[in-house]
Design brief:
32% helix, 186 residues, 4-stranded antiparallel sheet, 2 domains, alpha+beta, Nucleotidyltransferase, domain 5
Length: 186
């Protein structure tokens, strides 16, 4: 993110706001695929399984975090069953010079922004929704490459090292296709 995506974001800022538009960039990456589990000090074995997890809003930002990077674990959600998987957040860029408490508070607030449920989700809503859309795009792409339409020029050039992305976008777009009138929720 630091070496490739941050410069692209800065170019997009200039493209949208002109050469003088230079907002401060903050980049936080989340990770759920790790082997750290947060467990309360005292667990009542008579409690329901969800009540045996750390409470919503629990933040751990010392002791087990990276010594060089600003990092924290934020358990924003309640597990319906089993052990809660608390995401780890690593701050890669903090040009706004936000404090750890501000970064943690902003991250936690964004976990309440998913408009499908009325409680916090495990990740900030923009991250969660982007992941769902990326999965949908991957599935659509895989489905399309296995269909008869995939013999078009855009896909034949992929194997040759070049891709006509405009043509590929046209082929993968929903306009005029069976999926065009299907509703998609966040």
């Amino acid at each position: 993110a630091i070496q490739s995506e941050a410069p692209m974001l800065r170019m997009a800022f200039k493209e949208v706001g002109g050469p003088q538009y230079k907002p401060k960039l903050t980049v936080i990456v989340s990770q759920k695929r790790h082997n750290v589990r947060l467990i309360p000090e005292k667990v009542d074995p008579n409690d329901r399984a969800p009540d045996q997890n750390v409470p919503c809003g629990t933040i751990l930002d010392q002791y087990i975090v990276h010594p060089k990077y600003t990092e924290f674990y934020l358990n924003s959600h309640r597990a319906c069953q089993g052990s809660v998987k608390t995401p780890r957040y690593t701050v890669l860029i903090n040009e706004a010079k936000m404090s750890s408490d501000e970064l943690e508070g902003l991250t936690y607030a964004l976990c309440f922004d998913h408009q499908i449920v009325n409680m916090a989700i495990s990740l900030p809503a923009p991250v969660y929704i982007a992941d769902l859309w990326a999965t949908r795009g991957k599935n659509n792409y895989n489905c399309f490459t296995n269909s008869d339409e995939s013999s078009d020029s855009a896909f034949s050039t992929i194997s040759q090292g070049g891709t006509d992305f405009s043509d590929l976008s046209r082929q993968l777009a929903y306009a005029g296709k069976p999926l065009a009138k299907l509703r998609v929720n966040a």
